[in-house]
Amino acid sequence: RKPVTVASLLRMKERGEKIACLTAYDFSFAVALDRAGVDVILVGDSLGMVMQGRETTLPVTMENMIYHARCVARAHTAALLMVDMPFMSHYTVAEALHNAGRLMKEGGARMVKLEGTGEQAEIVNQLTVAGIPVCAHLGLRPQAVHKLGGYRVQGREEAAARAMLEDARVLEQAGADMLLLECVPAGLVAEITAATRVPVIGIGAGGECDGQILVLQDMLGLTPGRIPRFSRNFMPEGGSIPGALEAYVAAVRGRTFPAAEHTF
Ligand code: KIV
Ligand code: NA
Questions:
Q1: Is 181 a member of any domain?
Q2: What is the pLDDT of residues 113-130, one digit of tens each?
Q3: Is the minimum distance from the CB of 45 to ligand 1 under 6 angstroms?
Q4: How much distance in Å is there from the Cα of 7 to the middle of ligand 1?
Q5: Residues catalogued as catalytic
Q6: In this structure, which ligand is nearest to the CA of 49?
Q7: CATH at 73
Q8: Partner of 33 at 20 to 30 A CA spacing, among 18, 39, 76, 208?
Q9: What is the C-alpha separation between 126 and 152, in angstroms, rounded?
Q10: Helical (H) or strand (E) element with 243
Q11: What is the pLDDT of residue 51?
Q12: What is the mean pLDDT of residues 55-60?
């Protein structure tokens, strides 16, 4: 399999081929995801919950991110390795450059993801100048959970929807190579996807964006308690871990996931 790059993801969007992404936090799962044909592996700061048992992503540190990124990077996957910038690591240009540089140099990242709005355009621009691919995470931003007042769908009201579309445009203009929309109504996601040239990946964002991402433990049925409404357990259908990963990739490519019941 040829390595997935920013350029090949762009071509997938242009051709209308859906991009299948999943999170992973260690070597063994990174190998399994790669064998299943996953395009992008995210070392998400969701590791705070699924690796560390925390309530939110806020306590996750740069050292945590680098440790897990290195574990995944040792799999030398064809899948593109994207790594999250943790809470409070990217709010000044100097800190964002320093910390994104560490994720690339020490963690082996090929792209960094940061939660933000149009306010982060200058930071995205400076990372772009430095040659660091960036994914901008819009909509529900879990690092802002205390400001947003909980984990809830974003962009429902007209003014918020217009602001998110504008943020997407501004961030693309600033150099973002990919956008990620979390818990955003499907109609707004379709608008943003049509208005941008770079791939738009969704989670709880309907089927009209360019690709999908889920938290690995949710789609393997390992999450204690209820999984989010937008997620789906692929284990019953896949029958094994490799089978579930392949079923997920096939469902994303074949547009059977997400279905209406996963969409806002
Ligand atoms: O940290 C994470 O796993 C994420 C995905 C849910 C998009 O940011
Ligand atoms: Na994250």
A1: yes
A2: 999 999 999 999 999 999
A3: yes
A4: 22
A5: 182
A6: 1
A7: 3.20.20.60
A8: 208
A9: 31
A10: helix 241-253
A11: 98
A12: 97
Does any domain span residue 1? no
Task: State whether the beta carbon of 139 lies less than 6 angstroms from ligand 1.
Answer: no
Question: 116, 54, 245, 186: which is closest to 232 by C-alpha?
Answer: 245
- Annotated binding-site positions for Mg(2+): 45, 84, 115
Give the least confident one: 6-10, 99-103, 225-229: 225-229
Residues 131, 143, 221, 213: is their CA dihedral positive or negative?
Answer: negative
Q: Is 213 in the pocket of ligand 1 (CB under 6 A)?
A: yes
Number of compact structural domains in the chain = 1
Q: How far is the CA of 248 from the centre of ligand 2 (A)?
A: 20
Q: Which residues of 49-78 are buried (b: 16+ CB within 10 A; e: fewer)?
A: bbbeeeeebbebebebbbbbbbbbbebebe
Return the H-helix or E-strand segment holding 246: helix 241-253
The DSSP secondary structure of 178-241, one letter per residue, reads: EEEEES--HHHHHHHHHH-SS-EEEESS-SSSSEEEE-HHHHTT-SSSPPPTT----HHHHSSH
Percent helix, strand, coil in the chain, to 5, is 45, 15, 40
Query: Rounded to the nearest whole angstrom, what is the distance from the C-alpha of residue 180 to the centroid of ligand 1?
Result: 9
Domain extent at residue 203: 6-262
The answer to whether residue 86 is domain-embedded is yes
Confidence bin at 226 (pLDDT 50/70/90): confident
Tokens of 154: 């974003």
